[in-house]
Amino acid sequence: MSVYLCHSEPDLYEHDAEVIDARPGAVLLSRSAFHPGGGGQVCDVGTLEHAGGVLAVTGIERDGDDWWHLLSDPAAELSGTVRLRIDEAHRQRVAQLHTDSHVLNALVFNAFAGALVTGAQINGDGTGRMDFDLPDVDNDTLRALEPAVNDIIRQSVTVQQDYVPAAEAETTPGLIRSLSVAPPPTPDGRLRVIDIAGIDRQACGGTHLANTGISSPFRIVKVENKGRRNRRVRFVVDLPE
Ligand SMILES: [Zn+2]
Predict the structure, then answer these.
(1) What percentage of the chain's residues is helix, strand, coil (to nearest 5)?
(2) Cα(206) to centroid of ligand 1, in Å?
(3) How many whole angstroms from 134 Cα to the centroid of ligand 1?
């Protein structure tokens, strides 16, 4: 299942699918709008309704192009047609953090001469982190980027996706920004590019907001040294109670 329905239909939160393979506690499906995780982003969670009831989808285990949807009942062995529902609030929290992390990444990239991302983690609880290869930058300078991220959130900048041939992406400076967070190419060899108009344009396979203005305020909670070269920025979105 290398078809990312969550990319082509980002507002699809509920749909039917056929079970095409099953083992106790997990199913392979004919289609799925769940994001399988990757690039530091956690996968979608949600529910799966089958003929005998409703189970939680607690995670996705990737085996090549196969996405095993993991079920809350480890003994369940399903077949037939099922109905998937994605936890929209979870998806939205991840998309906020992920979109904000692009903005932070762009500010760091511009301020520090093309500094690369060496790692990222975007969680479902509104917390995340990014690691940058920045041996000579002090932590207060990084922390001081927080107001600039919030300025861009307040400007309600449009976020769009397009696809470019992978070979072209590799020769376009800045488009592949990350050393360890490379997105998967499409089956026909193109890379998905996320474009935050005038702010950031880079290859990415994650889930994002359609507009930065949807994000809650962004807050940097900590900047740490991780090894001699890496700076780890921990951040949250201040979600409404
Ligand atoms: Zn992204």
Answers:
(1) 20, 40, 40
(2) 5
(3) 21
